[in-house]
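A reminder before we start the practical. When you read a complex entry, don't treat the lines as separate problems. The point of joint prediction is that each chain is placed relative to the others, so the output describes one connected object in space. Small molecules and nucleic acid strands, if listed, are placed in the same frame. In the example below there are two entries. Take a minute to note the order of the lines before looking further.
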Amino acid sequence: MSIIVGEQTKLVVSGLTGREGSFHGLRNRAYGTDLVAGVTPGKGGQDVEGVPIFDTIEESVEAAGANTSMIFVPARFAAPAIDEAIDSGVETVIAITEGIPVLDMLNTYWKAKEAGVRLIGPNCPGVLSPGKANVGIIPAQFFDPGSIGVVSKSGTLTYQIGNELKQAGAGNSSIVGIGGDPIVGSDFIDILTMYEADPDTELIVMVGEIGGDAEERAAEFISSEVSKPVVAYIAGFTAPPGKQMGHAGAIISGSSGTAQAKKDALEAKGVRVGQSPTEAAAIAVEVLRGS
Amino acid sequence: MDLLEYQGKQLFAKHGVAVPSGEVAKTVEEAVAAAEEIGYPCAIKAQVLIGGRGKAGGIKIAADAAQAREYADAILGMDIVGPHGEGPFRVDQVWVEGGSDIAAEYYASVILDRGEKKLLAMVSSQGGMDIEAVAAESPDALVKRHIDPTREFDVAAAREIIDAAGLDEDIGDQAAEVLVKLAEVARSEDASLIEVNPLIVTSAREVVALDAKVTIDGNALYRHQDLAEIADTVDDPQEQMAKEKGLTYVKLDGNVGILANGAGLCMSTLDVVAQAGGAPANFLDAGGGSKAEAIVNALEVITSDEKVTAILFNIFGGITRCDEIAKGIVTASGQLDLGVPLVVRLDGTNSEEGLAILAEANLPNLHQEKTMLDAARRVVELAGGAS
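Here is the predicted structure of the whole assembly.
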C-alpha cells in the first residue's frame, strides 16, 4: 500500500503536448506510472510518444479509463483546467502549476470538496509512491520504498530530507507535496489521516514552513487522531516579519504563523521537531529503529 | 504585495467606500501646496508599509501653513521602526488629507482565512487602537464571521455582523454597506487582506475609512494593470535588480550571501546559517531548473550588496541539474570580480558532473563542502562571524 498514487493509478496529463508537461509526463511513465492519456483542447486524435491525446479530460476518462489527472497548465488558465478535471469523473487531481491567483483557488477548493474529488496542490511537486508510481516532478532517485510517509509544503526541502533518509537506509511509503500556497486542496490533516490508515506507513515525517496555521492545526489533530509517531521539520526561523519569501504561503502576519510558534505547538503535543533537515531525518530513523 | 495607505484609499474610492480627499507629496513644498489647497486642519501622514506610524511621530495634524511646513519637513526623510522592530522604513512621501471630525472610531477588515478557506469579516466598536490587543484583552469586542461562499454577501448579511459588534444603530446600514464594498474590493481586486482602522463616524454621521491597509495577491497582478504598475516600484536597489532579472530575492541585514534552489530549502539554509552563528544577507531562490545564466544573475545581485563578506550556494538538484549550476559559477567567476569567498554545496541530480566541472576550473576562493551543515559552518567562519 501507499497513498494517493500507486499501481492502480491511470494518469491523464493536461498540458501533455507542452514542453513541461511532456517532459514530466513521460518521465513519470518511464518510472512505471500508467500514463493513459494527455489532454490539449484542439489536439484530440494526436499522440505524444504513443500516448493518445484527447480534447477533454472527460473523454480520456471514458475512452482510456483515466482516474488521476495531473495539471501542467499555465497559471492563468489553471483554475478552469482543475475545475474541468473535477467535473470529468477522475478521483484525484494533482495540480503542479505555480502562481494561480488565490481567489480562483478559493472557488476551486469548494468545488472539489463538493464533488468529493481529492485535490493535491497547486504549486506542489506531486506525489511519489516509491517503486509504484510517480505523478509530478519529484526526482524519484532520492527515495527508496519503505515505511516512512512524508508530507511537505516544500519541494527541494523534501528531496533533501528524502536523500538523508535514503542514506540512512530508510525508505518511504509515499511522499506527498501538498504545496506552499495559501489555499491548497489537501492540507497536513488530510494526508495525516491517510497515512494513519495506511498499513505500510509506520512513521510520518511532516515538513512545514512559516505562514498560515496548518502546522498548528496538524499538531492538535495529531494529539487526538494519529497513533503513529510523527517527526517534523519547520523552515523559516530567520525570516523577518512582514517579508514574503517565494511561496505565497510563507507570509508572517503578526506573531502567529512564525516557525517558532509552529515548533512550540508541535512539541507541546509530543511531536519531535528537528533543528535542521539532517536532524529531522536522523530523529525519524532513530524513532523507526527504536520502535 | 502591500499597498501604501493612499493607494489603498484610491482603491476604496474606486469601489464607492468614502475616504477623505487628499494628495500625495514628495517634498515639503508639495506638501504645503497640498495643505493650502485642502485647507486646515489637515493631516500629514507618512506613507510607509508598516503600522504604528502615529506613535512613531509619522502622523501630525497641521492647523496652518507654518505647521504644515514644520510637520512635512519633520516627517519626510524620517525613519520609522515598526511595533515589532521591523524596518527602519524611510519616509519618502506623505499623504496630505483634510482633517476629519471624529464622533466614533471603529474597526473593519476582510481577510482570507487560509485554514477555513473562506473570506473572514471582522468588525469591532473599539477602533483606532491596536486590534491585536483588543482581540487579546476583550475577545468579545471583536466580531468575526466567515462570508459564506455559496451565498451573496449583501447589506442584510453584513448588517448582522455590524449589529453583533454593537456599532451605533443609526449608521448600521451605512457601515454594512462599507463592509459589503470591502468584500467586493477583496474579490474584484484580488486583495487577500483589507483592514480599515479606524473606520470613523463623523459628527455629520457619515462612515468614512480613515486608514487603509491592503495586500494584493501577487499572482493575480496580470489582471490588474493599475496595481501591477505599483508593484514595479521597489525601493531597495538589490531588490530592484533582482526583480529585473526575474529572481526571487529578499534583502536581510547580515553579511552571508545565500543562494539555494527552492523557497523551502532556501529558508532552511538561512536557518542553519543562523544556527551556526552567522547572519544571512539575503534570501535568494534560484528556482527549479536553474540554468547557468540565472546563476550569473544571482551572483551579480548578491555581490552588489556591499555588506556581503562570504557567499553560500546550497543546491539540492531535483529538476535543477548540478552541472548547470557549476557551469554558471565558472562563467560568473570569469565575468564578475567576486572578491569574497564562495562556499558551494552541490548534491542531487548530476552532482558528480558538477563537482568535476568545479574541480577542473580550480577557482580561487571557492570552497566545497559535502553537507548543508558543514557548508553553513564553513561560510560563517569565512564571513568573519556575525555582523
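Discuss with your neighbour: Chain A has a mean pLDDT of 92. What might explain this?
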